[in-house]
Design a protein that fits this description.
Elements lengths: L1 H10 L1 H8 L5 H119 L4 H24 L8 H34 L3 H30 L9
Helix pairs in contact: 1-2, 2-3, 3-4, 4-5, 5-6
């Protein structure tokens, strides 16, 4: 019982003093009141601290939390902007790379197309060479008496017919459609010049046939003019092919 009273005075002195007030001496009353006040303050203090903590928490939620949320949102937005920028840059880079690849592919295709045209043009020239050589040998033989006029006439006819055939083939020679406009123009002009060159060469052989018929020296002057004109057109055509090769980036190899 005495132990419970001690506990009461320790933990609830402000209650114990009410029940024992009349039995207490003056000094005990002073001590009891003092301790009761202290105990009461101690009992009230945790509630104040808790209330203060709640107040701080409310203030934090009202001010700090929104700021943190805003900062977090800013970070997220900046990250998204950065990611979007990186994606856009990657997209632009890929498009540039694909464009460069397409351009490089087109350049290589243009080179192949021009070289194929050149190959076709030189192949036509190769077709007429045997007939030209046969004609030249026949005319040389006619000059030194080793070939008769009939053989020379036949050789000239074959050279004329070959020139007519090549002239027609040059006219029909296809120019690749996918080439740049300026390169197509060069090749079209080249085939026109080469076609005209073999037309004038055909005319030159016609004049030789007339010469063999009537032996008039005046025919030889006209023959010389036609041959010179033919050579000029051949040179013009070959030059335009070379210009087309340069235009598509083909390096010209110098020959000694």
């Amino acid at each position: 019982m005495k132990f419970l009273k001690v506990l009461g005075w320790i933990f609830i002195p402000f209650i114990m003093i009410l029940f024992t007030w009349k039995r207490l001496s003056r000094n005990m009353k002073i001590v009891g009141v003092t301790w009761s006040v202290i105990a009461l303050i101690i009992a009230i203090t945790p509630n104040s601290t808790e209330e203060k903590s709640l107040t701080i928490t409310a203030e934090a939620e009202a001010t700090i939390v929104p700021a943190v949320k805003q900062e977090l949102k800013t970070v997220v937005d900046e990250k998204k902007i950065k990611e979007d920028k990186e994606k856009e840059e990657a997209k632009i880079k890929l498009a540039a790379e694909n464009k460069a690849k397409a351009e490089q592919k087109a350049k290589e295709e243009n080179k192949v197309a021009v070289l194929e045209f050149e190959k076709g043009a030189y192949a036509l020239e190769d077709e007429i060479k045997p007939f030209i050589e046969y004609y030249q040998k026949a005319m040389a033989g006619l000059g030194d008496g080793s070939v008769d006029i009939f053989t020379a006439y036949e050789a000239t006819e074959k050279a004329r017919d070959a020139a007519k055939y090549v002239q027609s083939e040059f006219y029909s020679l296809a120019v690749p459609e996918n080439l740049p406009k300026d390169v197509k123009k060069m090749l079209n002009e080249a085939k026109s010049d080469l076609s005209t060159a073999y037309y004038t060469k055909k005319e030159a052989f016609e004049i030789i046939l007339k010469f063999l018929d009537d032996q008039k020296p005046s025919h030889m002057s006209k023959f010389k003019e036609e041959i010179q004109l033919s050579d000029a057109f051949v040179m013009s055509g070959v030059t335009k092919i070379l210009e087309a090769k340069i235009a598509v980036g083909i390096e010209l190899v110098e020959t000694e």
